[in-house]
Amino acid sequence: MRFDQLDADLPALAQADPATDTVLFVTSDRLVHGRPWHRQRLHLILSAAAHLAEELRDAGFTVEERTAPTLAEGVAAHVAEVRPTEVVATEANSPGGRRLQERLGVRTL
Predict the structure, then answer these.
(1) Is pTM beyond 0.85 here?
(2) Which of 19, 21, 41, 73 sits CB 3.0–4.6 Å from 68 for a disulfide?
(3) Are 2 and 97 in contact (CB under 8 A)?
(4) What one-character DSSP code corresponds to residue 2?
């Protein structure tokens, strides 16, 4: 999930099943430190992600939160450890994000 998709009503979460699906949050060093964020905006984004993670836990989901150098490395580490049958995400808003999802073999909704 990218920071522009912090919404429980997006397709990937709306179709997820708390009994069987794990929700993965990756905070990448590249995203957090790779650009000059306004300190309050970055705090708002990270806080919104933490609140959504807690909301999903309250709804019965298993939520995994990872920090990794890049989003790709965080997803790859999750896949290597958990071995999910597939990784599903809401389609990224940016062309670069969509290319990354394709490269990682993520099924998009």
Answers:
(1) yes
(2) 73
(3) yes
(4) -
SS3 per residue for 7-62: CCCCHHHHCCCCCCCEEEEEEEHHHHHCCCCCHHHHHHHHHHHHHHHHHHHHCCCE
C-beta of residue 51 within 8 angstroms of C-beta of residue 44: no
pLDDT 10s digit of each residue in the chain, 109 long? 456 678 888 889 989 999 999 999 999 998 889 889 899 999 998 999 999 999 999 999 999 999 999 999 999 999 999 999 999 999 988 899 899 999 999 999 9
25 vs 27: CA distance, rounded Å: 7
Distance from C-alpha of 21 to C-alpha of 4, rounded to nearest angstrom: 21
Contact 83, 45 (CB under 8 A): no
Place of tokens 């896949």: 79
